Amino acid sequence: TRGDNDFRKEVEKDEAIENKKKKPFQKMNQKIMVLEKLKNEPEVNGSRKEVEKDEAFEEEKKKVEKVDLFKNEPEDNGFRKEVESE
After folding, report:
1. 43: alpha, beta or left? (left if phi > 0; alpha if psi -120 to 50)
2. Helix axes 2-40, 47-72, angle to 10 degrees
3. Which listed residue, of 3, 52, 54, 86, carries a Cα 20 to 30 Å from 38's Cα?
4. By C-alpha distance, which of 17, 24, 18 is closest to 70?
5. What are phi and psi of 25, to 5 degrees?
6. Which parts of this chain are annotated as the region Disordered (predicted)?
7. Cβ of 17: how many Cβ atoms within 10 Å?
8. What CA–CA distance (Å, rounded) separates 26 from 19?
């Protein structure tokens, strides 16, 4: 019926908004998961690849830690500090 469809649309809209809020963190987490998976893969092309993976992994980890710190910082002057430290 028509009422059910309207309700379903509202619910879907709410879910879409929630997912949008989570997306940056999900993307970061996915990257980390992929990088961790890469780290655990057997070496294909020797140690050079391993070093590159480790560096990439550390870079991503820093980014995520920064985001986490930023999340926990008080809003007032947090953003400005974050920009200055870039």
Report:
1. beta
2. 130
3. 86
4. 24
5. -70, -35
6. 1-24, 41-86
7. 9
8. 9
For the chain, list the strands marked E by DSSP: none
The CA-based dihedral angle spanning residues 40, 46, 47, 53, taken in that order and rounded to the nearest 10 degrees:
-50
Q: What is the DSSP string of 33-53?
A: HHHHHHHHSPPSS-HHHHHHH
Which tokens sit at 25? 């963190």
Tokens matching residue 14: 């709410």
Which amino acid makes up residue 17?
I
In the prediction, which pLDDT does 15 show?
Answer: 81
Biggest alpha carbon–alpha carbon distance for the chain: 62
Q: Give 10-residue mean pLDDT values along the chain (86 residues).
A: 74 78 72 71 57 74 68 54 55
